[in-house]
């Protein structure tokens, strides 16, 4: 679980060895986290990961090891069950639909797809940015103001706590494309209006990601591969031909 102020906010991937990658919004995801003193600074360019930024947002996070990453993304808003949805697309091709419900997994929130690339012949990286509340809750005027700034060349920075989950299915007759899914998920702490504005304007935005190393379903060597993987070209996976 991702817990916000003592309440479960998101159900996350479960370590069972063969379970699907998952983030699913729960009732505790009912508000955003913003530091007013940081908002103006984060509205402009962040050239480095200085101690002031990390310590300010570190006060919101539980004790643990975090890998800071400054990533450029161009987000695309996705609605579950509609075009581009990972859960009804790539995930169903690998795991099939849920065996009880007969339906794809459902995250119960719109989310942003930003990047994907090949890890190796047997693994593919997918990146997601997940808002704490649906974009429908955002203030329309603020979204419009950010979008206009971006059209004039501004590249603002959002902040997220992130996880990296490596998930691979058991052999299943329902699978049409068997491979390991690397799910890099950024849960927004600050920047909900910026992400929606970037998606609507087709413009880039930066993510200051604090990757929770100890809470991810990945090993230390996998985390250390992320900077190199994120520097690769964006590349969609080509499904393996059926025998």
Question: Features of this protein?
Answer:
243 residues; alpha+beta; 7-stranded mixed β-sheet; globular
Please characterize this protein's 3D structure:
- The chain has 243 residues and is of the alpha+beta class.
- 22% of the residues lie in helices and 29% in strands.
- The chain is built from six helices and ten strands.
- The protein has helices at 36-42, 51-58, 90-95, 140-151, 192-201, 220-230, and strands spanning 2-4, 7-12, 23-25, 66-73, 76-78, 111-120, 123-130, 157-167, 180-190, 205-212.
- Strands 4-10-8-9-7-6-5 form a seven-stranded mixed sheet.
- Helix 4 (140-151) crosses helix 5.
- The chain is globular.
- The model has no long low-confidence stretch (mean pLDDT 88).
Strand line-up across the major sheet: 4-10-8-9-7-6-5
Terminal CA distance reads 39 Å
* Beta-strand content estimate: 25-35%
What is the residue-averaged pLDDT? 88
**What's the gyration radius in Å?**
18 Å
Total beta strand runs = 10
Q: Describe the global form.
A: globular
Helix content: 10-25%
Main sheet, how many strands, which sense, barrel? Answer: 7 strands, mixed
**SS content category:** alpha+beta
Total helices: the number is 6
Return residue spans where pLDDT drops below 50 for at least 5 consecutive residues.
Answer: none
The SSE order reads EEEHHEEHEEHEEHEH
């Amino acid at each position: 679980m991702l817990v916000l102020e003592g309440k479960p906010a998101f159900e996350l991937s479960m370590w069972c060895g063969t379970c699907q990658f998952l983030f699913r919004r729960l009732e505790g995801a009912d508000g955003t986290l913003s530091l007013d003193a940081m908002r103006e600074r984060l509205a402009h360019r962040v050239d480095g990961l200085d101690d002031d930024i990390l310590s300010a947002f570190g006060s919101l996070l539980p004790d643990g090891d975090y890998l800071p990453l400054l990533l450029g993304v161009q987000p695309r808003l996705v609605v579950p069950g509609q075009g581009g949805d990972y859960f009804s697309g790539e995930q169903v091709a690998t795991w099939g639909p849920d065996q009880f419900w007969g339906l794809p997994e459902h995250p119960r929130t719109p989310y942003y797809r930003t990047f994907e690339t090949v890890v190796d012949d047997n693994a593919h990286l997918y990146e997601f940015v997940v808002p704490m509340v649906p974009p429908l809750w955002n203030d329309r005027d603020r979204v419009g103001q950010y979008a206009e700034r971006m059209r004039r060349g501004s590249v603002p920075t959002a902040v997220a706590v992130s996880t990296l989950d490596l998930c691979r299915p058991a052999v299943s007759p329902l699978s049409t494309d068997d491979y390991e899914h690397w799910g890099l998920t950024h849960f927004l702490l600050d920047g909900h209006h910026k992400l929606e504005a970037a998606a609507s304007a087709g413009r880039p935005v930066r993510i200051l990601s604090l990757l929770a190393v100890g809470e991810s379903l990945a090993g230390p060597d996998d985390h250390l591969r992320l900077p190199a993987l994120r520097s690769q070209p964006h590349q969609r996976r080509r499904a393996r031909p059926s025998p």
